[in-house]
Amino acid sequence: MCSIRQLSEEERSLVDSWLESEGIVLNSRSRRDTYSDVRPVAEILKKIYPEIELECYPTVSSFDRRLQNWQIFAFRVLLKLGLRLHNHDLKQLAEGKPGAVDWVLFHAFSHAETFPKVRSCSRARSMGGVSRRQSTKKWRDI
After folding, report:
1. Which sign does the torsion angle of CA 125, 128, 123, 75 carry?
2. Is the pTM for the entire model greater than 0.85?
3. Per-residue model confidence as pLDDT tens for the chain (142 residues)
4. Pairwise CA distance, residues 94 & 36, whole Å
5. What letter would DSSP give residue 70?
6. Mapping DSSP to helix (H, G, I), strand (E, B) and coil, where does residue 115 land?
7. Which contacts qualify for 4-8: CB closer than 8 Å, 24 or more apart?
8. What are the residue boundaries of the CH-like domain, all occurrences included (predicted)?
């Protein structure tokens, strides 16, 4: 299991430069307030992983609902990225602890190239008889 840690200066600058290239500005207040909810994080990650369904993560304001959204997101998305978080890590994300969302974004960005892509049905069949249902099985419920 992974545990949230502070990013090094180099790792943090990589995250910040990628976010800046996408037109996303995260200051310390927005990292704490806005990104303690999973919806804005899911919107950022959807740029890399279009399989993420944003409808599953409504914008919420109470801590309990934010924690519940992070638990669902961790199960549906983060596990598929190889990121298995403890409950106290999910609480840090829901509370907006400094550095928590940066760590999740860095981890997701660092796995972007090795992330499984969904193949189209016709291409999948021509590549050995794998149906679309089989090739997208792990992303069906995101």
Report:
1. positive
2. no
3. 567 888 889 988 888 888 888 888 777 776 777 788 999 899 999 988 899 999 989 988 899 999 999 999 999 999 988 888 999 999 999 998 888 888 999 888 887 754 334 333 333 333 343 333 443 444 445 5
4. 5
5. H
6. coil
7. 4/85, 4/89, 4/92, 4/93, 4/97, 4/99, 4/100, 4/103, 4/104, 5/99, 5/103, 6/99, 6/103, 7/99, 7/102, 7/103, 7/106
8. 16-107
Q: Which residue has the tokens 């999910």?
A: 90
Both tokens of 124, joined, read 């999948």
**Token pair for residue 34?**
């806005």
Question: What single-letter amino acid sits at 51?
Answer: E
The token pair at 126 is: 């021509």
Give the C-alpha distances (Å, rounded to integers) separating 59 from 6, 18, 43, 63, 99: 26, 24, 11, 12, 21
Domains of the chain: 9-116 (1.10.418.10)
Q: The tokens 């669902």 sit on which residue?
A: 72
